[in-house]
Amino acid sequence: MALAERTPSTDFKRKQISITGIGTKDDNEEESIKQQFNRHLHFTLVKDRSSASNIDFFNALALTVRDYLSGRWLRTYQHYYRNDVKRISYLSLEFYMGRTLKNTMINLGIKDVCESAMSSMGLSLNVMEDMEEDAGLGNGGLGRLAACFLDSMATLGLAAYGYGIRYDYGIFAQKIKDGQQYEEPDQWLKNGNPWEIVRHEYTQKVKFGGRVIHNKGERVQWVDTQDVLAVPYDTPVPGYKNNVVNVVRLWSARAPNSFSLEFFNDGEYIKAVFDRNLAENITRVLYPNDNMFEGKALRLKQEYFLVSASLQDAIRRYKSSQPGVFVCKRKSFEEFHNKLAFQLNDTHPALAVPELMRLLMDEEGLQWEQAWNITYRTCAYTNHTVLPEALERWPVELMESLLPRLLDIIYYINHLFLIEVKQRFPNDDDRLRRMSIVEETPQKQVNMAHLAIVGSHAVNGVAKIHSEILKRQVFKDFYEMFPGRFQNKTNGITPRRWLLLCNPELADLITERIGDGWVKHLDQLKKLKVYVDDEGFLQKIISVKENNKRKLADYIQKNYGVQVNCNSIFDVQVKRIHEYKRQLLNCLHVIVMLNRIKRNPGAPFTPRTVMLGGKAAPGYHMAKKIIKLFNNLAKKINNDIDVGGRLKLVFLENYRVTLAEIVIPAADLSEQISTAGTEASGTGNMKFMLNGALTIGTLDGANVEMAEEMGEDNMFIFGLKLHEVEALRKQGYNPSDFITCNEELSLALEQLKDGTFCPESPGMFQDIANNLIHHDHYLLMADFKAYVESQDKVNAFYNDPYRWARMCLLNIASSGKFSADRTIEEYAREIWNMTPNYDVIPAPSEQPLAPSIGVDM
Fold it and tell me: What share of the chain is helix, strand, coil (3-state, %, to 5)?
């Protein structure tokens, strides 16, 4: 039985209270849940048991659990208001939340009692959980990191607001037909969203277009604008068993009631509605690009919409917050940076810098110097990539059309900044050009990373190697000017979702040996190292993995019709499809394994099931071609009599958070094989490590620190290191130097060219082969030999079960550093000037809500 299932809420143990937290001490918790469930089914959804569907049952339970949150939610904000705490606004264009029900029940400690209540009514909690749509409001790592951070900020008792966009359609649903990716809309809201609460009273107005009026001695006016309303939808984010409930506030675009009223008056109803829809299109869909900048006007509108609404909301809350019982409006902004922190999750919210200046000057009447002093002390910027194609640069012409007032402010920020640069580095015009926020290229453009750096008091990378690359290469000029601003904050993952929720058997096993303190203090996992030579414990590790592999095998059989060998190595690479992540290197190794089997069918072969999952951006031709190649390989290999069950390939269609929760606990081998110096950090690598999968990878991103924590002998490290990559490129890289001396590689490339894997269309993969032979920007040919040798080492180690289990245990025991709790604690102390705590706020049953305390949500 899982840890969360064995430990009902301490509130329930201590006092018999109702699900809302306001019942009598004699109430039975299970009966209370059943009563609330039936009340919502009957009175909220207006269904009876005979007419209700599984979706209705899910909604009734979700609303019941949300009731349990309500008192804690109100109490949390009363606590923040009473103590006038500093608040974090985490600005992110993406929040990849996944499902909410199970995670919420676990964090509240009520999963066991909810499961028992549903079972007593003849309902399956598992079936109800499967009715929930993933909230896929993100492309990949950046959005999922933001979701993990929200969980950690609540668990650490930090007053945090996640600010994002409530996209009508999230990341597209991936469908594979004839081996190719097709995109379908992600209608995550088709059945409604029981978790969110709309807050019409906090609606904000966001301006676009228009013109700017400068009158001497008066505030600047931005007039004749096209206004769009930002309507907030709040979703609660509970901490782990501490009664803290924070919020992620997502903005939805609405046209104002007066929008195109003249068309209605003229009888042009269709025109009026059409224009109204154009305004509301701002939050219609998430741009499905990952590590790829696309300079579309709608994307710029989304970025400004998020920033403007969120900053207005934060300023409103600041002005109405004051310690004491009664609401007392703040009039001074002297304390602003001591009470608010804006964290920019990549450059997408970089417009926060000029927008905060605009609000402070144009709306609040501050002078430039005072506004600037507040702005850079309040904002902080996290960089997530070193890839040139991912760095945002917006055309000045577009900004002038959509955001003329902000462009004015950006120009003046740049003017003052370049004066400062010139004073610091006189007679260095080239440096001025390199550091300018406004780049004088053929198409004049605003460099958003430069804007974020200049306007922030802290700039951080997300892994040690990544932060060093930022300082030494990408932002070298800025580091020389502002060395104190640059920091490292290695990413982390929440152990609640990525172990306690997704791998309850392993969580149980760990808790039996070291207690459950690791759930909040993941570094306690190091206590497991004393069991590395305990064969009985290692056998239990093996058994847990086998059970998880069977669950995944059942999923694969049910969804793809492929029967896989549970005794084979489950070799998994799941992430966005991108050339720098080198899924092609994986494909080449598959071809080598196939050729070895065909050449000598009777030779010993360690069985392997290779799984690839991830979405390609709709316009990314090469990424889509990689998906097609892998699926063609699967079609050939899975039906080859000579291969039999020794080698199977499975493409994990529509990879998402919920599927990751099944795949990651079952993986034996985690593929983290990007070219050294290209992956900022990675967080999938940490999830696999925590769940006892061994990593085959380059010394890139957080892999470097993982190797430091567990020792390189507990990973399969291969390939060029960063300095070797730089040296090879500097001397002149020729892929042929590595191809001609490797027969297996030469044969694989020839097979790609000659149509071996696409007999119906022989030239289909020729461009892949030509790219590798003549260009190979990400050095696959240079790393191929070392990769295959490392894979052969994987086979040898896997055939020694206890050696493999020992390495698995040391991976798990060394995962403590990679908790998002540790990451957020570093952000809090070193960037936000806040102190995290693990204090438990009194439950509503222990202390009634204080009606005299204002709650400004």
Answer: 50, 15, 35
| Residues 6 or more apart whose Cβ sits within 8 Å of residue 258 | none
* Cα-based distances in Å from 784 to 397, 698, 848: 45, 12, 64
Integer CA distances (angstroms), 772 to 285, 535, 686, 727, in order: 35, 46, 30, 20
With beta carbons less than 8 A apart as the criterion, state whether 302 and 283 touch.
yes
Q: Which two tokens stand for residue 553?
A: 């095998």
By C-alpha distance, which of 419, 524, 453, 612 is closest to 812?
A: 524
Report the candidate in 75, 25, 69 with the shortest Cα–Cα distance to residue 850.
75
First to last CA, the chain: 38
Q: Give the distance from CA 307 to its chain's centroid.
A: 19
Where would I find the H helices in 437-570? 448-454, 464-469, 476-481, 495, 504-514, 535-560
- Looking at the predicted structure, is the pLDDT value of residue 629 above 60? yes
Positive/negative CA dihedral, 504, 506, 511, 512: positive
Q: Quickly state the pLDDT bin for 187 (edges 50, 70, 90).
A: very high
Determine the pLDDT at residue 786: 98
| % of the chain residues with pLDDT over 90 | 88
Question: With helix as H, strand as E and coil as C, how does 747-785 read?
Answer: HHHHHHHHCCCCCCCCCCCHHHHHHHHHCCCCCHHHHHH
- pTM score above 0.90: yes
487 token code pair: 């920091």
CB neighbourhood size of 339 (10 A): 18
What CATH class has 509-719+783-818?
A: alpha beta
By the 8 A CB rule, do 395 and 444 touch? yes
Question: In CATH terms, are 84-99+134-491+822-830 and 509-719+783-818 the same topology?
Answer: yes
Residue whose entry in the numeric block shows the structure tokens 């409930």: 245
Cβ–Cβ under 8 Å, residues 723 and 740: no
Burial class, 61, CB count within 10 angstroms (exposed 0-12 / middle 13-18 / buried 19+):
buried
CA-closest candidate to residue 824, choices 116, 310, 155, 223 = 155
Count Cβ atoms below 10 Å from residue 200 Cβ, excluding itself. Answer: 9
**Number of CB atoms found within 10 A of residue 769's CB:** 16
Q: Which residues, in sequence order, are CB contacts of 332 under 8 Å at separation 6+?
A: none
Q: Which residue has the tokens 């492309």?
A: 139
DSSP type of residue 840: P
Dihedral, CA of residue 176, residue 182, residue 187 and residue 188, to nearest 10? 50
Q: With contact defined as beta carbons under 8 Å apart, do 95 and 150 qualify?
A: yes
Instruction: For the domain made up of 84-99+134-491+822-830, give the CATH fold.
Output: Rossmann fold (3.40.50)
The angle, 0 to 180 degrees and rounded to 10, between the axes of the packed helices 657-666 and 535-560 is 140
- Poorest-pLDDT segment among 274-278, 554-558, 626-630: 274-278
Across 600-646, where does the E strand assignment appear?
608-613
Q: How far is CA 324 from CA 320, 321, 427, 503, in A?
A: 12, 9, 55, 45
E strand or H helix at 370: helix 368-378
470-496 pLDDT, tens digit per residue, is 999 999 999 999 999 999 999 999 999
Which residues carry out catalysis?
384, 575-576, 581, 683, 687
Inter-residue contact 773 to 749 (CB < 8 Å) = yes
* Average pLDDT score over residue span 407-411: 98
Q: Where are the domains of the chain?
A: 1-83+100-133, 84-99+134-491+822-830, 509-719+783-818
Higher pLDDT, 27 or 99: 99
